[in-house]
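I'll show one example:
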Amino acid sequence: MENKVYKHLELLIERYPVLSACKQSIIEAYEILERSYVNGGKLLVCGNGGSSADSGHIVGELMKGFKLGRRVSSSFAEKLKNVDEELGATIAENIQSGLPAIDLTAQAPLMTAFMNDCDPQLVFAQQVGGYGKPGDVYLGISTSGNSKNVLYAAVVAKACGLHIIGLTGEKESKMMNYADVCIRVPETETFMVQELHLPVYHCLCLMLESRFFEN
């Protein structure tokens, strides 16, 4: 792994030594995400409660600049200006390159329509079936690893040819049955698990940003 990418993981372990137990699974999760993005894939992410908030947080870090500016390429800037000189120049100066990611917990009209007509537990599964393409990545966040709606979505993701990453607590869980890699942070109480999830996904986002946008 390139040093510019790996440095973020080293800093994570330095700041949170307890997460050294997750080092290999974080590397494997990064490699899955990197490979998907290289091949034009996207990330689908969901969770409940605090993990829903984490889903949106992750998408925010990927879809715009996190630590880096991520200016669009000069060739794309020219294409924008060719469409409209004035508007294109403003767009090129201000928008940033993103890594495509969708927060499945944020689609309120779709979610409420589906839950009104169908089994609410399948609300994430419905979206994975609609958005997901082979080679995409599904990230299921569950402190227990046993959240039914997150697991239903994992089953659909696997059937659709998506790669699956689980982000859970320490205990063995059903998510491990479906995930290509499961990052199990070493805590069991919900709020303590969530406190360790944030630095883990920040690290992954930083690693991806360095890989695709540094230099």
